[in-house]
Amino acid sequence: MEFTASQIASFINGRIIGDDQTIITGVAPIESAEEGHLSFVAQARFVDYLRDAKCAVIIVSEKLLTDIPYKPTIIAVEDAYLSFQILMNLYQEMQGRKSGIEDGAVFHESATIGENVYIGAFTCVSEKVKIGAGSQIYPQVFIGKNVKIGKNCVLYSGVRVYDYCVIGDNCIVHSNTVIGSDGFGFQPTKDGYQKIPQLGNVILEDNVEIGSNCSIDRGTLGSTIIGQGTKIDNLIQIAHNVKIGKHNVIAAQAGIAGSTVIGDWNQIGGQAGIVGHINIGNQVKIQGQSGVNSSAKDGEILYGSPAINAGEYRRNYVHFRNFTDIVKRINNLEKNSKDNTNE
Amino acid sequence: MEFTASQIASFINGRIIGDDQTIITGVAPIESAEEGHLSFVAQARFVDYLRDAKCAVIIVSEKLLTDIPYKPTIIAVEDAYLSFQILMNLYQEMQGRKSGIEDGAVFHESATIGENVYIGAFTCVSEKVKIGAGSQIYPQVFIGKNVKIGKNCVLYSGVRVYDYCVIGDNCIVHSNTVIGSDGFGFQPTKDGYQKIPQLGNVILEDNVEIGSNCSIDRGTLGSTIIGQGTKIDNLIQIAHNVKIGKHNVIAAQAGIAGSTVIGDWNQIGGQAGIVGHINIGNQVKIQGQSGVNSSAKDGEILYGSPAINAGEYRRNYVHFRNFTDIVKRINNLEKNSKDNTNE
Amino acid sequence: MEFTASQIASFINGRIIGDDQTIITGVAPIESAEEGHLSFVAQARFVDYLRDAKCAVIIVSEKLLTDIPYKPTIIAVEDAYLSFQILMNLYQEMQGRKSGIEDGAVFHESATIGENVYIGAFTCVSEKVKIGAGSQIYPQVFIGKNVKIGKNCVLYSGVRVYDYCVIGDNCIVHSNTVIGSDGFGFQPTKDGYQKIPQLGNVILEDNVEIGSNCSIDRGTLGSTIIGQGTKIDNLIQIAHNVKIGKHNVIAAQAGIAGSTVIGDWNQIGGQAGIVGHINIGNQVKIQGQSGVNSSAKDGEILYGSPAINAGEYRRNYVHFRNFTDIVKRINNLEKNSKDNTNE
Fold first, then answer.
1. Which of C142, C182, C186 sits opposite A158 (nearest CB)?
2. Does B288 contact A275 at a Cβ distance shorter than 8 Å?
3. Contact A213 C235 (CB under 8 A)
4. Nearest Cα to C201, choosing from A253, A32, A3?
5. B234 and A215 in contact by Cβ < 8 A?
6. Which pLDDT value is given to residue A302?
7. CA–CA gap between residue B174 and residue B162 (Å, rounded)
8. Which among B233, B247, B330 is the nearest to A326, CB-wise?
9. Can you tell me the distance from the alpha carbon of B55 to that of B35, in angstroms, rounded to the nearest whole number?
10. C252/B184 touch (CB, cutoff 8 Å), yes or no
11. What is the mean pLDDT of residues C24-36?
């Protein structure tokens, strides 16, 4: 798809400086933008790129413009970052959505779908599945029996949804994520571990996004729940019967153990671990790699393994870094103390 | 499937209090059980739920019953938890197993299968594969050449088994787990890393369960082995030539590096890492996020990175938490010592 | 495939001691080699195996041979390890490569492939994909539109490559790895997190190998880049717009956050985490489980979370392990100090 500077400017109510017929063939960040590219400058520290950039068109925040002549065509707007976002969303919309069931998909006769649903090749849709209007199910997805998927969802290639799981509206699930595998529940006996049947499901509420290669286990009984608007990165473990509230962000490779309850608007860092059966309040920040082993109140900031108050952890860690010196000081004190005693 | 209280009671030799024709339409934990549900109470702390629960039927341990009238139908048994497990296992059995090779599966003519094997759509069964009676291979699984799979196994959708790997009887492997990918072996040369061919395989002994999105690498030569009855959670890394014994449990996101040997009945916590070429004995407990970098004897309990005795780690960590105070005390001692010297 | 000792010796210019017609039916490490196996001894500590090994043929470094009679046939060479590697590579070559598009693959009419390309069953090749000569695409792979794949690549079963990603020559990608899923980019608003479109791609340069179950996210704008010859283990997270240079090795379960730039010849340990927006130089070693939160210069060795100089970390950790004793010493000093003052 090609656009002119004039077309772009009209989408975002921009003012053109330069040739309004300049053709745009691609998009790039200003540092690496090349011929034909559209880019943007929204911060003063990138202003130097304006003069010599090789790209075709740059969207610039009005206040960053000066009198110097620009080589690329400029589209001046109030907030270049915001305008650029609007454009990118438009661009994605224009990429078009597929619809219909592709040849080679297996679609059970008892399954039902809304309007404009797309089911890709080699995808299996099992008994009594319901899929809402506009949802895009890519090729090679597995959808177990009695699964419900809402409207306008996107399930990328290789997603697996086990029986009875429920996905709300506007959810995105990236490739090879598994929703509803068995929780890790075994009873020790003298002959070995006996499997505890995992009979619950997973519920994703509306507007949830889950990255690639995540594992969201089904509840033993009842549901594992990911609340509305929560965003989950890649390679994340959510164990059985975890309940996660609204608008949380969880970074890659974090793990949450069984039955833990998490509130709203929390930020969980990459590779953090949270033990089972605890409560995390709201607006808690957990630093990357932390190991949270007790409940956390609203607004806490945690760090370390086991995790403690982040400020405290950092102060103590400074002393840890000086530990060799500190021990030398203790050695000296002991030496002096002994000298004193021997006097 | 619907059941009556009377049918349920007959399965577990229970005594009914209330209407033995009460219909059960689902199962839930007592905290969230709703109309029509079957639940159970096996611990004193849940007894208060008995009176007002909205669910249809509750299985209760005999000793927890009192004289008060109950709203739901009660089935009294000796151990409600155990009886409930028995029921759940029965229920899963009754769900029925599929058999036959579904349309759209690729099944090589040299492959052989036992009775009542199920092969789902879009699954590939390569040359000379052998699959034992009763095994259930879900859709979209890849089984490489010369792979052997025992009896009554379940391989969920998206499992990949590379050439020559061996899976015992009664094993369960969850979606998107990879068995037999190449070990991470490269020789450094001045021009870059040269791949060392990975010619071994993976052997899962009987009764092994592996969660979703795990990576079990093949041996460079010889086998990577997961011993009988060992249970592995999700997103776990088992490197080339690791040997794991019997009846271990390994929690999510743990990783074990190459050629390490692990005994029996160990418990390895979530996100723990174990370096290569060491020995872990039997009945060792490794706390979550620990980094084990030297061999461990039978019965050790480890924590920290690098991991040390867990009790020791916790005691030292208490001092770490007080480090700022401890440094203040040293400052004071130095001040006093100086005062003394200057006297 | 069967070989004689004489055939093997001819491949590696070896000198035979014993029966040159001995048949080889398999390959194993010397500790577990059985009848019919070929093995090798390249280190003095394995010499005792030579006399009694049950295997058929052993390749031995010339300098390790003595006068004692050997039961297996011996092939003497200068460097047994090197000769064995050469053989193993030959063996893999001989396994044969498939070519052609298997029945059941979906291959878009606008896609183009070079000579001797193999496309497995249930693989989807989308619009305008280009695949270079000799590449092997296993079954059940998804290749999005406009993807370019170079020559002699291997993509194992279940790999997902999102639209517009680029893979160089001689790359290997193991099962269920995802290349090009969306970066984790959201703008907080009072109503929840707003998705930032992820419009870039992923570029793997030549000779890159990526293990199983990895997630390599596409750039927000521009590319996430894995440089030439870099080797990546299993279950690894590479976030959006990360740039990794040449000849790095990254061990399992490591994670690198967004926009971080990594030089050449670095070694990153298992489960290590690197925060976003920093620079790692060249020949840096990052120990397993480290949490790197600031830029690192060439040749640094890092350990700990947050990571510091590895030697320093280890020295301080020794004191941490003695923390209880150290606190006792401080208690004593305070007691003595008080005694002195009270004198």
1. C142
2. yes
3. yes
4. A32
5. yes
6. 98
7. 16
8. B330
9. 5
10. yes
11. 83
Res. C227: pLDDT tops 70? yes
Residue by residue, DSSP assigns B254-283 as: -EE-TT-EE-SS-EE-TT-EE-SS-EE-SS
Q: Which chains touch C (3 or more CB pairs under 8 A)?
A: A, B
Q: Which of B124, B186, B329 sits opposite C330 (nearest CB)?
A: B329
What backbone phi and psi angles, to 5 degrees, belong to C49? Answer: -70, -20
Residue, of B40 and C278, whose pLDDT is higher: C278
The pLDDT tens digits for C125-172 are: 999 999 999 999 999 999 999 999 999 999 999 999 999 999 999 999
Q: What is the pTM of this model?
A: 0.91
Both tokens of residue A245?
Answer: 């509230």
Chain B CB contacts of A330 under 8 Å are 330
ipTM of the complex: 0.89
Question: Which of A29, A187, B230, B85 minimizes the C-alpha distance to C259?
Answer: A29
- Interface probe with A: pick from B37, B102, B152, B233, most Cβ of A within 10 Å: B233
The partner residues of A225 in beta bridges, in order of sequence, read: A203, A243
Q: Which two tokens stand for residue C50?
A: 């030579």
Active-site hit among B37, B108, B174, B240 = B240
Instruction: Give the model's pLDDT for residue A172.
Output: 98
Give residue C123's pLDDT band: very low, low, confident or very high (50, 70, 90).
Answer: very high
Sign of CA pseudo-dihedral B82, B84, B88, B93: positive
Tens of pLDDT, residue by residue over B178-204, are 999 999 999 999 999 999 989 899 999
Cα C151 from Cα C130, distance rounded (Å) = 10
Query: What integer pLDDT is reported at residue B110 of this predicted model?
Result: 97
At B53, the pLDDT band (50, 70, 90 cuts) reads confident
- Residues of chain A neighbouring B253 (CB-CB closer than 8 A): 237, 253, 255, 273
Angle between helices C323-342 and B310-321 (to 10 degrees): 50
- Give the integer Cα–Cα distance in Å for C255 and C269: 10
State how far residue B269 is from chain C, nearest Cα, in angstroms: 14
Contacts of A28 in chain C (CB under 8 A): 221-222
Contact residues for A208 (Cβ-Cβ < 8 A; gap 6+)? A167, A168, A171, A172, A226, A227, A228, A229, A230, A231, A232
* Preceding amide of C306 cis, omega within 30: yes
Binning pLDDT at 50, 70 and 90, where does residue B82 land?
confident
Catalytic residue among A37, A174, A240, A247: A240
Q: What is the mean pLDDT of residues A269-290?
A: 98
Say which amino acid occupies B256: I
* Encoded tokens for B320: 């770490």
Using DSSP's 3-state secondary structure scheme, residue A74 falls into strand
Closest CA to A160 of C287, B256, B138: B138
Residues C321 and B308 sit within 8 Å (Cβ to Cβ): yes
Indicate whether C342 pLDDT > 70.
Answer: no
Neighbouring subunits of B (3+ Cβ pairs under 8 A):
A, C
Query: Quick one: pLDDT at residue A2?
Result: 76
The identity of residue B223, as a single letter, is S
For residue B45, the 8-state DSSP code is G
Average pLDDT, chain C: 93
Cα dihedral: C206, C209, C214, C218 (round 10): 0
* C240 vs A contacts (CB less than 8 Å): none
Cross-chain Cβ contact A175/C184 below 8 Å: no
Cα of B28 to nearest chain C Cα, Å = 31
Q: Is B174 a catalytic residue?
A: no
User: In a 3-state reduction of DSSP, which class is residue B332?
Assistant: helix
Pick the more confident residue, C121 or C11.
C121
Q: Positive or negative, the Cα torsion across B80, B85, B90, B96? A: positive
